[in-house]
Design a protein that fits this description.
single chain, mainly beta, three-stranded antiparallel sheet, 1 helix
Length: 150
C-alpha cells in the first residue's frame, strides 16, 4: 500500500493544534494539504478522531466523497466534492477539540484514505460504517496527528 502525505500549514505532525480550531476557540476546521493519492483512486475519505476521549474514539470530522484529484482543503471549508457526516457532537461537519480540563494532551488523528471504489454507506451512516467501507476499498492512506489540551 502506498502512502499519502497529509499535512497542515497550521500545525506540524505531533504538535499542538492552535486554539482557533478548538471548540472553545473559533471552531473552524484546519487547512489540510495532501499529495501522493494514487491515480486510480475513486474517492477520498477524511476522518479526524480523538482516541484519548473518555468515551473511547470520539469523531470530530468525517467527510466522504472527496474529489480524488483534489490536493487539500482551506481553513473552515469542506473538502472538494465531499459530504460532511455527523460528528460526535451530533452535528455535520467539523467539531473542534474539547478534551476534559486537566487531561494530558489528547491526540487528534486526521486520516485521509484513498478508495478504489466509491464508498457505499447506509442512510445516516456512523463512523463504524465508514471504517468498514474504507477497509474494503482502501488503496492508500495518510495520517497527521495534532495535540490539544485545556
Amino acid at each position: 500500500m502506498t502512502g499519502i502525505e497529509l499535512k497542515s500549514s497550521a500545525f506540524t505532525d505531533h504538535a499542538p493544534v492552535p486554539r482557533r480550531y478548538a471548540l472553545e476557540g473559533e471552531n473552524v476546521s484546519p487547512p489540510l494539504a495532501w499529495s501522493g493519492v494514487p491515480d486510480d483512486a475513486a474517492e477520498l475519505v477524511l476522518m479526524c478522531e480523538d482516541p484519548d476521549a473518555p468515551s473511547g474514539n470520539f469523531v470530530h470530522w468525517i467527510v466522504v466523497g472527496v474529489d480524488p484529484h483534489s490536493d487539500g482543503v482551506s481553513e473552515g471549508q469542506s473538502p472538494p466534492g465531499g459530504t460532511e457526516l455527523v460528528n460526535g457532537y451530533g452535528r455535520p461537519g467539523w467539531g473542534g477539540p474539547h478534551p476534559p480540563p486537566g487531561d494530558e494532551s489528547h491526540h487528534y488523528v486526521f486520516h485521509l484514505y484513498a478508495l478504489a471504489e466509491p464508498c457505499v454507506l447506509p442512510d445516516a451512516p456512523r463512523a463504524d460504517d465508514v471504517r468498514q467501507a474504507v477497509e474494503r476499498q482502501e488503496l492508500a492512506d495518510g495520517t497527521l496527528i495534532g495535540l490539544y489540551r485545556r
